[in-house]
Amino acid sequence: MRILHTMLRVGDLQRSIDFYTRVLGMKLLRTTDRPEQKYTLAFVGYGTNPDHAELELTYNYGTDSYDIGTAYGHIAIAVEDAYKTCDTVKAAGGNVTREAGPVKGGTTVIAFVQDPDGYKIELIERKAA
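The structure assignment produced for this chain is given below.
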């Protein structure tokens, strides 16, 4: 078994596609519009299934915001250099909510950014092998 995708409900599909592709460097993989069911899906990621997990962005017609809820934590993305990635995110207009630095009580370098709908994304530094 493996994770195929994670789904987030978003209030403005194009704004979210722009954030995940332009700010975080993902690719728009495919979209599906279901007018009769009143929703549109966009799948983004760094690669496609089955080699990579994808992020499904779901826009429900007429809904421009959601309560995130207390059970949601974050999405984690491996990056080679968390400090440089934070600089890149800020330069692209993204919101860094925790600057890069070691995790409390450890040595792993992490940072947090927030997407336009308020979802947290953790950047975890993983040096290339």
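Interim note for the steering committee: The beta strands are 5-9, 27-34, 39-45, 54-60, 75-79, 95-102, 109-114, 120-125. The chain is about 15% helix and 40% strand.
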